[in-house]
Amino acid sequence: MDLFVLFLKTILFRPYVFVFLAAFLFSAVQLIGWSRAWRFWLISWATAFLCEFSSTRTGIPFGWYFYNGSTVGQELYFSNVPFMDSISFSFLLYAAYCVALCLRLPIDSPSSPTPPSILPLRFDLHARTSWSVFWLTAFLFGFIDMVIDPVALRGDRWFLGKIYYYPDPGIHFGVPIANYIGWAVVGLISLAIYFPLERRLPALSLPPSVAPRLLLGVGLYYGVLAFNLGVTFWIGEPFMGFSGTLMHLPILALLILRLTVGQRSYFSP
């Protein structure tokens, strides 16, 4: 009962995290179904938790950092790791996966003479579990953290709170580069476990184009990005905010170009 009450307190304490989690579950079920969605969540959450558990004790893979326990009793912890932190990896990895799929899935020729506003993407099994999607997803996963972690490190200036610190602050707004490498490692491990399962699960029954369903996950990626950039500007860090915005604009431009113009020669497998 105490654990259940603490879980409810966590939801009330971190409602924005659970809004993003609900958006992940809805969009993932629409695209890959419940059986794949819960496997994706469990694998990515467990991987993230074990990596955080390890890094706060050995420095691997994120480098050395520590949770200060300032919110113990206010939100749920597993060992020394806040539950909300480790579950964030799951929906962010899925969102990055959707962006990568939009850039890498094969484009089918429109069936009508009038081109659609969004070109049809085929959810090909080989393409969606390819090496290119594997590496691109891990990159996009670590790349979004280059906006999230700097503002999270300043959590004492907004409603996150000061929950962790780096004993040796890094060069990227106080965040060590090892942290971003660690995020990519979490993504690579998670996908290395999930992709073989994906190939063995029963085939999905989906419409010819999955672009509309993929855009739910893409919306989650850019929704999280917008949320963190908004907080960055709100706490009075314009240079950090503009830096994060400019970093992500080229990928957004490529994504729009791919979905509307269809640059097969650059992005298609």
Description:
By secondary structure, this protein is mostly helical. It has one domain (2-267). It contains 9 helices and 4 strands. The protein has helices at residues 2-13, 15-58, 83-104, 125-128, 131-152, 177-200, 211-234, 238-260, 264-267, and strands spanning 66-67, 77-78, 81-82, 164-165. The strands form 2 sheets. The chain has a two-stranded antiparallel sheet. A hairpin with a 2-residue loop joins β2 (77-78) and β3 (81-82). The longest helix has 44 residues, at 15-58. It is globular and about 55 Å long. The model is unreliable at 264-269 (pLDDT under 50).
Brief summary:
The chain is mostly helical. It contains nine helices and four strands; from the N terminus they run H-H-E-E-E-H-H-H-E-H-H-H-H.
Break the fold down into its secondary structure elements and pairings.
Blueprint: H1 2-13, H2 15-58, E1 66-67, E2 77-78, E3 81-82, H3 83-104, H4 125-128, H5 131-152, E4 164-165, H6 177-200, H7 211-234, H8 238-260, H9 264-267
Antiparallel strand pairs: 1-4, 2-3
Helix pairs in contact: 2-3, 2-6, 2-7, 3-5, 3-7, 5-6, 5-7, 5-8, 7-8
